[in-house]
Amino acid sequence: MSDLTTLQQQILANIAAASDEAALEAVRVGALGKKGSISALLATLGKMTPDERKTEGAAINLAKDAVTQALTARRDVLKSAALDARLASETIDVTLPLRENPAELGRVHPLSQTWDELTTIFADMGFAVAEGPDIETDDYNFTKLNFPEGHPAREMHDTFYFNPKEDGSRLLLRTHTSPVQVRTMLSQKPPIRVICPGRTYRSDSDQTHTPMFHQVEGLVIDKTSHLGHLKWILQEFCKAFFEVDHVNMRFRPSFFPFTEPSLEVDIQCRRDKNEIRFGEGEDWLEILGCGMVHPNVLRACDIDPDVYQGFAWGMGIDRIAMLKYGMADLRQLFEGDVRWLNHYGFKPLEMPTLAGGLST
After folding, report:
1. pLDDT at 256 exceeding the cut of 80
2. What is the C-alpha to C-alpha distance for residues 302 and 190, in angstroms, rounded to an integer?
3. Is the pLDDT score of 44 beyond 90?
4. Which residue from 81, 185, 245, 341 could staple onto 301, CB 3.0 to 4.6 Å apart?
5. What CA–CA distance (Å, rounded) separates 225 from 306?
6. Segment holding 135, helix H or strand E
């Protein structure tokens, strides 16, 4: 009996020391397998007397039951530990923030945002959008706009010209979007009410000028249009675009070949800590040029100036974007710096609306 007790204690110790299910299975086979130590004891019962068999058999079976129970308990412990280890290695930390939606990662460029804003404002006033080619003829870019021969704007230092053709004429990169006005007047009959946003090109580059920039021009041709209408349109645009309730504007005489009279427009502002705030202050900032369409331009576009008259204006999209969103250097708009775009850009699904706010 003493040997059986010692054997049982040894087997139970081996069970407790098993580090994994494979080691535990080895202990089970060594104790309860066909050639196991306890199985060997059970095999000796046939050679014993009935009294010995009764006593020894009961003790051996108790030892077998104890080992079986210990094996079951240890197996459950090892399975639970293995499951915990697997879960720890394959776990997903659900407390981490979700990856940002791809639609939230992208940013709309401030120029695109400004383009959409001004289109929204003028569409609310009943203006259509007109477009034209970036490569223009001298006739559309200058002649039909009342630029006389020898005008400084025709010189190489202002205009990007292509190589001359066989007949001596040269195409050019348009220096303003005014050729779109010409094309519109030639293709449509009055009344006309359009804006002409687009890329323009001039040979100039510094902190406030780039060889390629963006303009938007407006054109109204009708029998009764006058400067009062023009002033109201520009004032309403500035209030909507700069998102202020009131603006003071100053119209100064100027000169443009394609308008007569010609005016430059200043808007009241306050400069504070490298910021410009509109609708308040005592300073003035020039933002655009405008005027009544010159009769020569109307004639060149087959419109009778004795019947129709109109007005036009033009402003730099890049410039008003810089003024509204506090950008110091025009060249940053075209550098493609993702960090800059993340700072100044807009979420792609937040389209500007007059009801919901242009730049919210």
Report:
1. yes
2. 11
3. no
4. 185
5. 13
6. strand 135-137
pLDDT one-digit tens code per residue, 277-305: 777 778 888 889 999 999 999 999 999 99
**pLDDT tens digits, one per residue of 99-118:** 777 777 788 888 998 999 99
Task: Determine the Cα–Cα distance for residues 17 and 122; give it in Å rounded to an integer.
Answer: 84
Say what the pTM is. Answer: 0.68
Vertex 258 angle, CA 257 and 262, to 5°: 80
What does the mean pLDDT of the chain come to? Answer: 86
User: Cα torsion at 195, 198, 201, 206 (round to 10°)?
Assistant: 100
DSSP 281-296: SSEEEEEEEEEEEPHH
Secondary structure (DSSP) of 48-65: S-HHHHHHHHHHHHHHHH
Query: Token pair for residue 148?
Result: 């006389």
Residue 147 sits at φ, ψ, to 5 deg, of -85, 115
Which amino acid is it at 117? E
Top-tier CATH class for 102-344: alpha beta
